[in-house]
Amino acid sequence: MTTAELVNQIKVKKSFLCIGLDVDLNKIPQYLLATEDPIFEFNKAIIDATHDLCVSYKPNTAFYEAYGIKGWQSLEKTIQYINANYPDIFTIADAKRGDIGNTSSMYAKAFFEDLSFDSVTVAPYMGKDSVEPFLAFENKHTIMLALTSNQGAFDFQTKNVEGSQGEGELSGAKELYKTVLETSKGWNNAHNLMYVVGATKAEYFTEIRKIVPDSFLLVPGVGAQGGSLSEVCKYGMSENIGLLINSSRGIIYASNGEDFAVKAREEALKLQTEMEAILSNKSI
Amino acid sequence: MTTAELVNQIKVKKSFLCIGLDVDLNKIPQYLLATEDPIFEFNKAIIDATHDLCVSYKPNTAFYEAYGIKGWQSLEKTIQYINANYPDIFTIADAKRGDIGNTSSMYAKAFFEDLSFDSVTVAPYMGKDSVEPFLAFENKHTIMLALTSNQGAFDFQTKNVEGSQGEGELSGAKELYKTVLETSKGWNNAHNLMYVVGATKAEYFTEIRKIVPDSFLLVPGVGAQGGSLSEVCKYGMSENIGLLINSSRGIIYASNGEDFAVKAREEALKLQTEMEAILSNKSI
């Protein structure tokens, strides 16, 4: 999917909601455990109930790998189901991968080709040659961690880093996440980059938009993690929207009874309604 | 496996060699493609031919995920084969994972419980609460990226970072990888940490040993990537050895004919012989 197609979907659906499919067998309605593939059955019900209210689904690979081959099968069935039934959905493999070049190429092949995801999340620590193999895929999107929504973001991401390497003086120092954003703009096929920026730190969006004014930002942390949708949009929305707001637990675990899909739709609708108002206020 | 057991294995085998099982179907002997599970057949032959010369095998998950469910099955069969036949081997899932806390717990479950690996590699970017869920597993080992062997290591890892957060002056600045090493020493169950340090930068080992004098270091980059074994040992070996030297392509792709396992053994033997001499020189 191209970025223009994603923007168009947002305008059509009046939503920039992404729903995280982080399926924990301990949290889903227990009657589903009697089915052959409880994870897929859960996802299918959630997707069928919410697909018109969101533009993206984001399975986090950890929740599938934890169940081994069966989990990987559930992931494959889920992405195939979305692609077959709702081809306008922007799919995100939340995998946070990254390795040396030839190895990153294998990950890119796994998520972009074998599983046909539109995008994958990656980690920046190993630098340019660990991310560029992902960026080489046209009309696929590489969503790099910049400023995450967890407490550990303050361990390294917000530390000040020197502006240029090898100097005795630390001139032009800025936080690591800003260095990551700025540096990545010079990488090959940087136009295929998006970034993860946590909603729990809405005040940071102004600074981030100075560095990447147009890039799409995937924003976790609304809902269960406490971030505010209106604050994020106030500081983070670009001229071309440029935001995908993720909610996982707040939607998919709205109920653990037989009404789980109905309740999930209700929670998704609340967010979509809020998003429609925000877009309307901006005449988008 | 405990660290003491690993050290004992190194002394028994006179080897601190780790063999990377990064299996690319385009590079293995083509006659294996006629078998039901070419990746597993390749690994099995390599393992049977080299298990007495090394103390560790390290499949990189990218090379398995690239083949979808079939690849995940090959990974599962490989780890099961090692655990069943060579239980004294220290197994490493080279996965470079890391996510928010409850998600990292799922990855830890995937690699430590479901697949029964002794260890897993993780990325530090998301900080303490993204790594501690791995560290909570006793007698399992979490191998965190510190200074990697690729060119991209110079993008962020070697940049100078302030010593303490929020100050106007950047006092006590040091490279990011050193900040990562030092910070991680204060995490819960830090005794379960090992670190990835690339062999291509042997001169860095002296500095690293000042920060983590006793920790095990997993060292990629010997062989195909150009690192020197003797240099790494000169600067990086601790009193308790503290090194696992990885070679992947240099061993497993020594030949792509029917003699691939024999040739792999020859390459592994060269490294083991060199390691035995180094240990002997140190009276270990």
Short synopsis of the structure:
The structure is a homodimer of 284-residue chains. The first copy, chain A, is an alpha/beta fold and 284 residues long. Chain A has helices spanning 3-13, 38-50, 62-65, 68-85, 101-114, 128-135, 153-156, 176-184, 205-211, 229-236, 249-252, 260-281; strands at residues 17-21, 56-59, 90-97, 119-122, 141-147, 160-161, 174-175, 193-197, 217-219, 243-247.
Description:
- Two copies of one chain form a homodimer.
- Chain A has 284 residues and is α/β, with parallel strands linked by helices.
- Chain A has one domain (3-281): Aldolase class I (TIM Barrel).
- Helix content of chain A is 43%, strand content 16%.
- The first copy, chain A, has twelve helices and ten strands.
- Chain A has an eight-stranded parallel beta barrel with strand order 1-2-3-4-5-8-9-10, surrounded by six helices. Chain A has a two-stranded antiparallel sheet with strand order 6-7.
- The longest helix of chain A has 22 residues, at 260-281.
- The two termini of chain A are 21 Å apart.
- In chain A, 56% of the residues are buried.
- The interface between A and B is large, with 61 and 61 residues.
